[in-house]
Amino acid sequence: MNIKDLDYFHQLILQKNFSQVADFFGVTQPTITLAIQRLEKEFNAKLVHRDRVRGQLLITDAGQQLDVYAASILRKLAVAHREIDRLTQQQTILGLPPIIENHYFPRVAARLQAAGMLENIRTIEGGSKALRTALHDGQADIALLGSTEPLSYDSLVAEEFDRQPFSIFVAKQHPLAARKRVYFSELRQEKFVLFTRSFMHDAAFNQLSHRNHFRPDVVFRSADTRLIMNLVAENVGITFLTAIVDQHRNDVVRLELMDDEQPAFISSIVYRTSHVLTPAQKAVLDILHQTLGPQS
Predict the structure, then answer these.
(1) Could you give the CA distance from residue 288 to residue 290 in angstroms, rounded to a whole number?
(2) Which of 135, 133, 152 is nearest to 271 (CA)?
(3) What is the pLDDT of residues 137-164, one digit of tens each?
């Protein structure tokens, strides 16, 4: 079987138009037609049906089933290309959510620099949810991820190294600023400035909202911690962040949450079970272990 035939077929499922798929790959339409015919012969089943009266392309049950496997094969093949390409390099791509990057990575970077390895590190940033996808897709080799529950995936190794509580941050002039602790239920009437939904903070925030039976008034979302804190300082709203946020400012006040059974901000070192780490990547992983000390 030709892998390219699967590629053509998968794209045909997505676009449902032979000529558009041909244009997509820069080939002739008969090339796509022959590829589908080869697959139909291979599986002894009709995969697509052209309804010339309505001008539609219909996907048979067999075609839909094959596409499930085709999509998986093509995705894994793309990951294999990325991994094998990097096996010949000394580079390690490290996924870092912004809060974890600011709090933990400086210590890691110091050890990497002392070992002469920092220049071979390339980082990609984003929320933990997005970076988990980047790991699955082979766009990152290792990541430091946040979660509200211990990570457990067949395709990923996750080694927990820290747990921290969440806190509420308010402007210095906010009425709650005189308090040191607060219940989440007391925030029912507040306006919130939060991370975007690609960050696991959103899951923890939703847990507390549902538990306290109210829909929060979220006035703004951002992926930028500094911007969120600046908006809080201007009293645009209050925010919900892990306590490891290093604010270093006197215009924002942190309040502890007093709720029972709070979600925790769990930090883990994560990498793919299928990924053959290069010697350089193994050395990076060793430094992460030495610096962050995963819990047993």
Answers:
(1) 6
(2) 135
(3) 888 999 999 999 998 888 899 999 999 9
